[in-house]
Specification:
Blueprint: H1 2-17, H2 25-34, H3 38-63, H4 65-70
Helix pairs in contact: 2-3
């Protein structure tokens, strides 16, 4: 359920931000995949993973134990 809500948030963000001048990384990845240019899609995917991990690390550093307790599975 958490994955589905995250996906819906990502989808709505993409729909809101996507225009001719602005493209989200996920839209660019899909465009590269549909045009059969796998290399740039892999590169953007790697960049996206690094950005997400960096954001998680920063949030964990700022919030400390509070964040780890919020997502603790019981």
């Amino acid at each position: 359920m958490i994955s589905f809500s995250t996906l819906m948030g990502e989808l709505s963000t993409t729909v809101i931000l996507y225009s001719a001048r602005w493209k989200t990384i996920t839209v660019a990845i899909v465009e590269y995949l549909f045009s059969a240019t796998i290399g740039p899609a892999y590169a953007l995917g790697t960049i996206l993973i690094i950005l997400v991990l960096a954001a998680i690390a920063v949030a964990n550093r700022i919030l400390g134990r509070k964040m780890s307790q919020m997502f603790k599975m019981v």
